[in-house]
Amino acid sequence: MDSPSDLFGRQSSLISPFDPHITPSGGGHGAPYPGANPSSQPHYPLIHHLLQPGGAPMRSRGQLHLDRYNREEEGMEGEKEEGMGGRLVGAGGKRLSGAALVADWSYDMMRVKRLRLESLVFGDGEIGLEEEEEEEEEKGRRNAERGNREKGREGRRRRREREELKEQLEEARGRLKTLQEKVWKAFGERSAQEEEKRWSGGEQEEDEIDHLSLPFIPSSPHFQGIAKQDRKAEDHEKRSEEQRNVNGGGGGFLEGVLKRAAVWMGCGVVRGEWERFGGEQKFAQALKQELGSAVARVIDRVLRLYTQNDPLPPSIHPSPGEGRNAGGAPPPHPHQEQSEALPLITRRPDNRRNNLLPPNNRTKNTLLPPHPFPPLCQPHPALLPPSSRHKDSSPFLPPSSCPLPIPLLHYTMQQLFTRSLSHLPPLHKGGIMNSDVYMEGNPFPNLLTSASSSSHPSFPPLAVMEGLDRLDGGLQHHHERDGGMRGGRDGGMDSGIYLGLGSISFFWRSGEGLSPCHLKKAKLMFFYARYPSSNTLKTYFPDVKFNRCVTSQLIKWFSNFREFFYIQMERFARQAARDGAPCLGRDSRETPLCLGRDTELYRILNMHYNKSNDYQVPDRFVEIAELALREFYTAIQTGRDSDPCWKKYIYKIICKLDSPVPDSFRLPGCPMG
DNA sequence: TAATTTCCTG
DNA sequence: CAGGAAATTA
C-alpha cells in the first residue's frame, strides 16, 4: 500500500527533468536530486497518470490513445518516418484540438519511455545473439588462442551496445525536440496572438490572481508570466464555462485540463525557454497545477450538485491565503464559526520534502559535506506573511526553476475542501447512513450521516467517491489515532472524509483539534518562541478549540521542537569541537561558530521547521541558534558536559530569548495559507 | 497538586 | 511526532 507520504515522496522523485545530460550533483542519502543519476530513468509523475492510455483522467480520450498505441504496435518503423509531430496537423491541414495535441505529447512521452525500455530489452537480446555467434565461432577454432581476442571482442561489443543506446537516446531526444517545435507551431502562435489581443484590449486585472485555480505561483518573473497567461486563459474559460451546463461533468473538466495544459505548453515555448529550462519539467509542473485547480473545480461542482438549496456564495473561491490577506484581517465568512470550530484534522506523515532543485550559487562549506538546500519554492507573494514578503525572501532561490511543492498543493486542496464542505448543510449522527460500515471503510464517516435527512439531501458517498480513490492505511491509521485522542468528546464533531484523487489525496475532517496546518504554524512560531506558554499558544491558535488534550499536544510539539533544536546544536557543537574546526560557515575565521545561512546546520533547521521553505527564517532565530551552538561548544570544550545537568544552563539562556510572535500568527490557519 | 519540561523509546 | 515516566516548577 502506498501511504500518502510514499506517494508524495515518489512524486518528488518523479519530477526529475528529462535531461540525459544532467550533471550529477548532491545525491546524498536523501537523494535530493532524483534525476541526478544519469542512468536513472526519467519519470513522469502526475503526467504519467494522465498519459496512461487507460489512465483515469484521460479515459475519455482513451480512443485516441489506443489508436496511437495500436499503430505503434503495428509498426514502429513507419512511425519513425512519420515523425513525432507528424499528425499534429490533421488530414485537412487543420490543427488538431488541444486535447489531441496533449494526447500527442503524452503519446510521445510514452514513446520515449518505451524506447528506453526497448533499448534495454533489445540490448539484452543482442547480447544473446552475440553469445550464440560466439559459440559457433568457438567450435571452429577451439584450439586457437582466445584470451586477448575475446577481451577485445567483449570491449567492442559493449561499445556497440553503448552506441546503440546512445543512438536511441538521441533519436528520442530528437523526437522530443520535434514535438516541441510542433507544439510551438500549434499553440505558441495562438498564445502569442491571444496575448497580444488581450493586452491591446486593455485588460488590467493582473493582480486578480485566481488562487483557486492557481494555488501557488512561484513569484519569479518567468512563472508570473506564465501564470498571467494562464489566468487569462482561465478567465476565458470561466466565461465560456458559465455558458455551458454546470453539470457538464468530467468532459468539461478534462477539456479544461487539456486546454490549459496546452496554454502552459505554449507559454513555455513563447518565451523560448521550453528547452532551456527543461520543458518536460515545466510541463509536469503545469499539469500538476492544472490538476490541482481542476480537481478543485470538480469538487466545487460536485458540492454544488448536493447543495443546490444552499448555493455557494462567491466567496467559495477565496485565495488559499484568505485570512491573511493584504488587509490582515480575515474576511467575513458566512460559515466562519463553523469552519473555525471544525478545523482540519488532516494527519499526514511529514516526510514530504521535495528536494528537487539544486541551490543557486550554493557555497560549499569547508567543514561540512555539501548538501542541497531545502526545496526552494516561493508561494505567491500574496501568500507570504508580511514578514516574509521581502524581495530577497528566498536568497538562494533559483529564479525560474521552482517546482510546485506538493505539500503546498496538498494544503491548498485541504483548505479548499474545508471551505467547500463548510457550506454543506449540517449533517448529524443517527441518520440513514449511520452505520459502522461507513464508519469503518467508507472515507466519509459521520459526515454522511444525517439525522435530518428529510430536510437536507444526504451526501451520497458513492457518487462522490466515484473516481476518487479511497485513502489507504496511513490516513486511516491517523483517523483511528485521532479518534482515540478525542475520546470523551462530543461525538457529533467527530466527522470527516477521506478523499483521494489519483495521487492527490485529501483528508478532511471537521472537529476541533490540531491539523498539519497547525503543526506547520507551530513550527514557524518556533522561530520566534521556543518556550511559549499555553496562554500564548491559545492566542495564536484561535481556530483551535483548546482542551487539556489539545493544549498538551501543542505544548508537546514545542517540547519536541526544542528537543530537535538542542540535539542539533549539541551534535554540531561536538562535531566542531572534535574536528577542531569551529567555523560552521564560510568566511568565519574571525567569527567562530558562525551559523551562516549556507551551513548544513541552518539547512537542517530550516528543513525541520520550515520544510516547504516558504517562510523567511528570522534573523533573530539564526542568532539564537548561533548562540546556542556557541554555548554548547564552549560547554563541551571546557568539559562542562560531564556535569549531568550541563544542558540546563543552556536551556535557561535560550528560554529567555523568546521574541514576540508576529501578529500574522494570530490569525487562524497556517500563516502561509 | 497541577502544569510543565525533559528524557527516553518506538 | 507521540506516549510515558520522571523531574521540576509554581
Plain-language structure description:
The protein has 673 residues and is mainly alpha-helical. It has a domain at 515-579 and 595-666: Arc Repressor Mutant, subunit A (Orthogonal Bundle), CATH 1.10.10. Helices cover 51% and strands 2% of the residues. It is built from 20 helices and two strands. Strands 1-2 form a two-stranded antiparallel ribbon. A hairpin with a 2-residue loop joins strand 1 (495-501) and strand 2. Helix 8 packs antiparallel against helix 9 and helix 17 runs antiparallel to helix 18. The longest helix is centred in the N-terminal third of the chain and has 54 residues, at 147-200. The structure holds a DNA duplex (10 and 10 nucleotides).
Q: How would you sum up the global shape?
A: globular
N-to-C order of helices and strands: HHHHHHHHHHHHHHEEHHHHHH
Which range does the strand content fall in?
under 5%
Largest sheet: 2 strands, antiparallel
Amount of helix: 40-55%
What is shown here, in short?
The protein is mostly helical.
Q: Main attributes?
A:
single chain; 673 residues; mainly alpha; 2% strand; DNA-binding
Write the layout of secondary structure elements.
Layout: H1 4-14, H2 45-51, H3 62-74, H4 76-82, H5 98-140, H6 147-200, H7 221-243, H8 250-270, H9 279-306, H10 336-341, H11 406-421, H12 436-440, H13 461-465, H14 473-485, E1 495-501, E2 504-510, H15 516-526, H16 534-540, H17 548-579, H18 600-609, H19 619-637, H20 646-655
Antiparallel strand pairs: 1-2
The structure holds a DNA duplex (10 and 10 nucleotides).
